[in-house]
Amino acid sequence: MLFDLLFITLYVLGWLALGFLPWLALSVITRGNAGLRYLPLSMGAGVVGGLVVPFIRDDELGLILSFVVALALPTLLLAAQRLALRLRAEPRGER
């Protein structure tokens, strides 16, 4: 029981760290203009993405894929957010 709790905690911390990395990269690229309100969203997306994969695939590959998805999902989320902000800021006559 205690070992299960320990490993689940380590997995969640890993997913949180992988959810933080895309936000950190965006923050560095935009010189601090990544938006602090998107940090919990990015980290939460990493945990959700990491949790979904082991329910679909319950083996060693599923564990590796969960960390890949925990990095990819926040990256896609932040990219979609930046694209939406860019499209919203674009004047209507230039499309």
> Which term fits the overall shape?
elongated
Percent helix:
over 70%
Order of helices and strands, N to C?
A: HHH
Task: Look at the structure and give the mean pLDDT.
Answer: 92
The description of the largest β-sheet is: none
Which runs of at least 5 residues are low in confidence (pLDDT < 50)? none
Our estimate of the beta-strand percent is under 5%
Radius of gyration: 16 Å
Structural class, please? mainly alpha
How many runs of DSSP E, i.e. beta strands?
0
Give the helix tally: 3
Cα distance spanning the termini:
58 Å
Summarize the structure in words.
This protein has three helices and no strands. With 95 residues, the protein is mostly helical. It is elongated, with a radius of gyration of 16 Å. The model has no long low-confidence stretch (mean pLDDT 92).
Q: What topology does this entry show?
A:
Elements: H1 2-29, H2 38-56, H3 60-89
How would you describe this structure in keywords?
95 residues; mainly alpha; 3 helices; 81% helix; elongated
TL;DR of this structure?
With 95 residues, the chain is mostly helical. The chain is built from 3 helices and no strands.
